[in-house]
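Exercise 3.2. Students should predict the tertiary structure of the chain below and write it as structure tokens, then compare their answer with the key that follows.

Predict this chain's 3D structure.
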Amino acid sequence: MSITQKYPTLLIVDNDELGRARLAADLRARGMDVMGVPTVREALITLRTRSIDLGIFELRLPDGSGHEILKAAGEMQPDARCLILTRYGDIAHAVIAARKGAVAMLAKPATPDEIVEALAAPNKANAPMPDHAAIHPDHARLEHIAHVFRTDAGGNVSKAARLLNMHRRTLQRTLDKIRHSEDAA
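Answer key:
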């Protein structure tokens, strides 16, 4: 069963009134019961007085953070599936959001389909670990550089250096290192 078949109650917390209204209208059209508030204070009041199934919280709000709402939702309504939707996302905030129970952290502008998909995705907390070993960060960096050089820059060192924000000569030395490691393998 998808989340739109259940007619879930959804709380949107975002101080961008136009964006909140537009998202609420799109999600209402999908059959959801949507409430929207602009502040952490109003969100906490709503969480105490109403039951929610889903939550979409902006990270930066005038009176606090979406992380505060996420934590409160986890304590007051542990079955609610919540995500952070923000323009200010980074890895550190994503880790904090995941630790506080967010099912996802999406960058604005996200489409209503992307949001519904993230909220409906199965919980990955109990997912098995992949069979393969984790890739070393240095190896991942070299793979990324090689990919940009071959595909995005079409083999042009100067263009790849601009795309990667690297000095051209540094990129050439790195590409030589990649070639030597490929030859050895």
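Discussion points: The chain is about 50% helix and 15% strand. The chain has two domains: 3-120, 137-179.
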